[in-house]
Amino acid sequence: MQFKLSVIGTGKMGNAIIKGLLDKNILSAEHITGTDANGEAKQHFLSLAANGQLNWAATPADTIKNSNVVLISVKPQNMTELLPQLKDANDQTLFISIAAGITLARLEAELGKHRPIFRVMPNTPLMVGEGVTACAANSQVTAAHHEILEKIFGVTGKVFIVSESQLDAVTALSGSGPAFMACIVAALAQAAYDEGLPQQEALEMSLQTMRGSAALLQQSGMTPEQLIVQVASKGGTTEAGLKVLQNSDLSQVLAQTIKAAAQRSRELAKA
Ligand SMILES: NC(=O)c1ccc[n+]([C@@H]2O[C@H](COP(=O)([O-])OP(=O)(O)OC[C@H]3O[C@@H](n4cnc5c(N)ncnc54)[C@H](OP(=O)(O)O)[C@@H]3O)[C@@H](O)[C@H]2O)c1
Q1: Threshold 0.90, pTM exceeds
Q2: Do residues 33 and 5 lie in contact, with contact meaning Cβ atoms separated by under 8 Å?
Q3: Which of 65, 91, 192, 238 is 20–30 Å from 224 (CA)?
């Protein structure tokens, strides 16, 4: 399905999404229009397409005139100023907001309940095509809109359809998750450094071990428990390490980490 896309806020996330669409030939440059309040954003946006065919609009109101899909990728604190400028969009225009904590009820209140709207939570690995994107839809969204959503975010990773009430858990797990994973990678690398590995190699091995383990789990279809059994032979090194790990309060700490992040997500949505 061909569509015309407006991107409001061509910062880190907006540009990463556009780059994915161009790289994978999902949408041609002439069907994409960007706009951004930041004066330096224009050049960076236009340079995403080698043939220079991307379109630029001076204001959000101008951007939406020639598109049937609008991606809102400004910071949550900029939504109050932005949303009233989008009211004149065509009734059929699909809105996709990635602004954290901005609810479907708020989007409907400002844009109109009759419009199809997705509230989406992507994460930063989307920038390297390995993202998790969770999406909640309002009642006006149809199968055709889901197809468009899948096209836009499917090129930058995996897409999950969730209910809006699940987005706080998503925010904690995959939204904030890259930072939690980075903590684990860094702690394991530091421990291996303490055991005698050079710092850089320890970090690279730690990273590759996380990546390889995730790939093995995904590609083999094994459960995490089955992988543990496969690696840990009786009386071996893994078993010795697991005795420490499984008798520690790691599970509890990770549970508290996710709980705190989800709670903060709920608070921000109410603010
Ligand atoms: N980065 C993440 O990890 C992540 C993960 C999930 C979701 N998100 C969401 O993604 C959204 C974008 O994040 P980002 O990291 O890409 O932010 P960003 O790099 O700061 O990009 C946002 C851009 O929007 C511009 N802008 C602000 N108000 C505008 C307006 N009224 N009209 C047009 N442009 C406007 C900003 O300009 P100024 O700089 O001049 O303000 C900035 O260039 C946020 O809502 C965030 O919650 C981010």
Answers
A1: yes
A2: yes
A3: 192
Pocket of ligand 1 (CB under 6 A): 8-9, 11-14, 35-38, 41, 60, 73-76, 78, 81-82, 98-100, 121-124, 175
SS3 for 178-233 is HHHHHHHHHHHHHHHHHCCCCHHHHHHHHHHHHHHHHHHHHHHCCCHHHHHHHHCC
Q: 175-270: which CATH topology? A: ProC C-terminal domain-like fold (1.10.3730)
Measuring from atom 28 of ligand 1, which residue has the nearest CA? Answer: 78
Fold of 5-162: Rossmann fold (3.40.50)
223-257 confidence digits (pLDDT tens): 999 999 999 999 999 999 999 999 999 999 999 99
Residue 217: closest CA among 235, 233, 234, 229: 229
DSSP calls for 131-151 = EEEEEEE-TT--HHHHHHHHH
Cα-to-centroid distance, 8 and ligand 1 (Å): 9
For 45-89, the pLDDT digits (tens) are: 999 998 779 999 999 999 998 899 999 999 999 999 999 999 999
